Amino acid sequence: MTNLKTDSERAGRGGLFGEEPKMFTGLIIELAEVKAIEKRTDSAKLSIKSSNAVNDAVVGDSIAINGACLTVIGIDRNILSFDVSYETLKSTNLGDLKRGEKVNLEPSLRIDSKLGGHFVAGHIERIGRIKTKTPVSNAIRIEIEAPYDVLKYLVEKGSVAVDGVSLTVVSVSKNTFSVVIIPHTAKITTIGSKNIGDTVNLEPDILAKYVAKFLLLNKDNDLPLLSTLKKSGFVS
Q1: How far apart are CA 49 and CA 77, in angstroms?
Q2: Three-state SS for 35?
Q3: Would you place residue 219 in the very low, low, confident or very high pLDDT band (cuts 50, 70, 90)?
Q4: What Cα–Cα distance (Å) separates residue 202 from each residue in 4, 89, 96, 165, 186?
């Protein structure tokens, strides 16, 4: 039996007309299971078995799957269906998913939602790869290889979304960055079960991208903010 909602219900949640912004916080609400992934020439259809997010979902909703914002196109009992475009397949690791594999789910923010982690757009920048996993006390330090397109926006104590999970950057080097996850995060997200060599979707803090663009466009202007950053050594 298909779970159908009225147009007014979908419109009221931004499902038809997009009144609500498609933003996330990087706080995963469910570790769901891939039911099927149907590969096509330049796209795919992804079906996810959900026990939590499905209860409040309607067709047209935005849900982040491993950090990638996708639109619900169908609901059948506890199965959520999504179309995955060529661009998404190219820029994320969703195309490598297998039946039975676990994925991180997070519905998009609503006007009355609590803001937990940090602002996440659900637009994956690039794919990273786990280089090392090291136990540290009761936590796990994870070093991730990442391209410059991501690393240039990362700073120590800043934020990054890894497979959609909001994490704090511990360190940044020439080719890698590190994060630390606590046992709770390891248990309720895919990050805990990932192994060395596995891929992860990466999205740097969108606020860092806006600041970087502002600085680039105004690098030759004598603005007070730029002057302060130059004196502090942040901008050359």
Answers
A1: 9
A2: strand
A3: low
A4: 33, 14, 15, 9, 17
Instruction: Record the tokens describing residue 167, joined without a space.
Output: 């994490």
Neighbours of 99 (CB within 10 A): 10
CB contact set of 197 (below 8 Å; sequence gap of 6+)? 129, 130
With beta carbons less than 8 A apart as the criterion, state whether 168 and 157 touch.
Answer: yes
Q: Which pair of tokens denotes residue 87?
A: 């661009």
Q: Which of 153, 126, 142 is nearest to 181 (CA)?
A: 142
Neighbour-count burial for 178-209, b at 16+ CB within 10 Å, e otherwise: bbbbeeebbebbbbbebeeebbbbbbbbbebe
Residues of the chain with CATH 2.40.30.20: 7-107, 126-204
Architecture, CATH, for domain 126-204 = Beta Barrel (2.40)
- Mean pLDDT (the chain) is 85
- φ, ψ at 122 (rounded to 5°): 80, 15
Calculate ∠ Cα 146-30-149, nearest 5°: 15
Q: Residue 37 CB: number of other CB atoms within 10 A?
A: 19
Q: Determine how β-strand 30-39 pairs with β-strand 102-107.
A: antiparallel
225 Cβ neighbours under 8 A, 6+ residues apart: none
Report pLDDT digits (tens) over 67-80: 999 999 999 999 99
Query: 7-107 in CATH: which number?
Result: 2.40.30.20
Q: How many helices (H) and strands (E) does the chain have?
A: 6, 12
